[in-house]
Amino acid sequence: MPPHPPDDDAAYAERLARLQGRWWKRLLDVQRPYRWYLRRLQLGFVLDLGCGIGRSLTNAGGNGVGVDVNPFAVRQARARGLQAYEPEEFASTKWSRPGSFDSLIVAHVVEHMRFDQAQTLLSTYLPLVKKGGTVVLIAPQERGFASDATHVEMFDFTSLQALLGNCNIRIKRCESFPLPRWMGHVFPHNEFVVIGEHS
């Protein structure tokens, strides 16, 4: 099995759900810009690698399958009506075959591992994406990286591009989202986004 982040216990899944479920976040619909952003990419049938409790998969429209090493997070994602599996389960599904997906999204995953581990993980699942499909990597900027003790290695535009380049993914664009790049030092939810094409 490829390496996965060590965040595979109930406490981590509960933390994700608690942070996302705060009343003011629901009231203000803080996920709206992220939902708009992912849906604008028109990802089609998506593989959400490291799906957690399903935030990115939901924001992308729910049209796809999530995989996560954390069984508690997978259960929460399923309870939200999403298709989510642990890696061993996923390997025996009908989707675990070449070209099953239009796109791959890896959001807030690679910072939980070393570069070589992230490359192995990406290389393992990349064949499941159709040729010409979209690959989206999302990682927190400085303030977000510092906010979670389970983060291992900082990934910026340069390292995310290198990760895709090592997997022969053509880089299409890099973006700071939702705010300009300099805000990553103060706003914990600012993200590095690198988008590529599976060639």
Record the SSE blueprint.
Layout: H1 10-20, H2 23-28, H3 32-40, E1 46-49, H4 55-59, E2 64-67, H5 71-79, E3 84-85, H6 87-90, E4 101-107, H7 115-125, E5 129-140, H8 142-146, H9 157-166, E6 169-177, E7 191-198
Parallel strand pairs: 1-2, 1-4, 2-3, 4-5
Antiparallel strand pairs: 5-7, 6-7
Fold-level CATH name: Rossmann fold
In the residues, how many domains can be counted? 1
The span between the termini is 24 Å
Low-confidence stretches: 1-6
Q: Tell me the β content.
A: 15-25%
Succession of helices and strands:
HHHEHEHEHEHEHHEE
- Tell me, rounded to a whole number, the average pLDDT: 89
Q: Largest sheet, described in full?
A: 7 strands, mixed
Question: Looking across the biggest beta sheet, what order are the strands in?
Answer: 3-2-1-4-5-7-6
What's the level 1 CATH class? Alpha Beta
CATH homologous superfamily?
A: Vaccinia Virus protein VP39
User: Number of helix segments?
Assistant: 9
Count all strands and give the number: 7
Give the C-alpha Rg: 15 Å
Helix/strand class: alpha/beta
Shape descriptor:
globular
